[in-house]
Amino acid sequence: MKLMSLLYATGIVILAVIFNVRCTKINPTDIGTDLLPTVDNVHTFDTVLRVYTANYLFDDSTRMPYYDNHALGLIEDDPEFGKTDARIYMSLVPNSTNKNPFISSDSIIGIDSAFLNLSYAGAVFGDSNSVQKFTVYEISDPQFLDTFNRVVVRPDFTTTGTPIGGGQVTLNTIDDAKTIVVKRDTQTVSNVLRIPVDPALGLRFAAYDTGTVYPASRRDSAFQKVFNGIAVKVDETSPSKSAITYYDLENENTKLTFYFRVKNNGVIDTLATDFVFAKVLTLGGKAYSVSANTINRTPAHNYANLDLSTPVTDPEKIYIQSTPGSYAILTIPGLKGLDNRLIHRAELSMYRDNDAAGNDIYLGPDLLYLNLIDSANNNRSLTIRDDFVYNSSTASYDYQTFGGFIKNDKYFFNLTRYVQNIVTNKDTIFSFRLYAPKATLDYYVYPKEYGNVPYELESIGVNPNIAKGRVVLNGGGDPALKPKAMVLRIIYSKI
Q1: Quick one: pLDDT band at residue 30, thresholds 50, 70, 90?
Q2: CA atoms within 13 A on the CB side of 125
Q3: What's the confidence (pLDDT) of residue 36?
Q4: pTM for the model
Q5: E strands within 66-206?
């Protein structure tokens, strides 16, 4: 009996030792979001390929339609990337259908106050505790009504020299509820930036001729001929210049409101009239853009080393600033030498530099984006076949599977099918482009199950807000010497 007990105990110990030895040989995978076979170097293996990188600035031609959130703010000195100045330009038209939006200029006793209201989209990039001085100007630039002037990187439109309004605001109070009282009518609004405007502007509007400026038809275009629009910017004298906020021009709460008193039949009455955002203006049978969002960058510090044509090659750090910003070209020569194998997972990964200055204030983009550059066809950009799945009905893609978001201080992209096609079908090996656009125009490469469908140019939405996010990443290098280098890791089985 004692012998049986001893043999049983000995067997348990031997099994435990064997189990422990086998477990210590297993290399658990810390990769993406998928459950994968463990790397045992018997049936399943892994290899790590070096990535070579180059930093560039974008020669950006991004355009901003009126229905997208517009950026407004000033970042004077991001300690890694430098300066960003975002300004909003918009045309206004009378909301009232009365012959005169102010009823009658003869009946006005006075304009009590006026406010430019911008509907806050609830997004901020930078320090939400910033105190910024918003300033309003009248646009004097005749080029403002030009459909092609919606590019975000362009010279600012000229304005009149004297501001017509302005006010200082703590950014984290923009979403607070505000009570507006007109006569006996009390209204509460929230998520609105309210900037005081000179009431004299209301007297000017009220004095316009009703026949030529406020006609029964074509009121919008008639009014625009005498008032080109307004520009809003953050003044350089602001107490803190370290944030950008975002506004929805299309929202009904975006408007210029005048509060005025009139005398009707001897009775004094207090009223309000609105001038609202004009989405599209038609003049001479042609539709014009009536908004613009200029976003101008001044690179500084390490980011100042980048330019539009000469790359910073194989750098220690990669600087990705969201549109309009920068990008990196990635090449992986090791892909060419892979023999045929079954790819369980191929993942491109890159670590955020947690020591980069300003990380606590200026966060990374919601998503990084990766595509292919076809240098043989005028550097057209291609989606990554089979790994990138596009949804044409929403102009978006499955980023949860494809990747591009940060997890445990690391961004990753799933390139499994792309690498499998290279080793099995000898598909073309392209360079990659890494960046953080608001949207991009790529040729969509349909999955193989669709057959030989021609590439189609598609607009693909990536990040919800322009100019929001920046990140410093570790560059490539020898993964044996740089444990947090950008690499392509492949988990595979031999065939």
Answers
A1: low
A2: 30
A3: 66
A4: 0.88
A5: 70-78, 82-90, 92-94, 108-126, 131-138, 165-170, 178-182, 185-189, 192-196
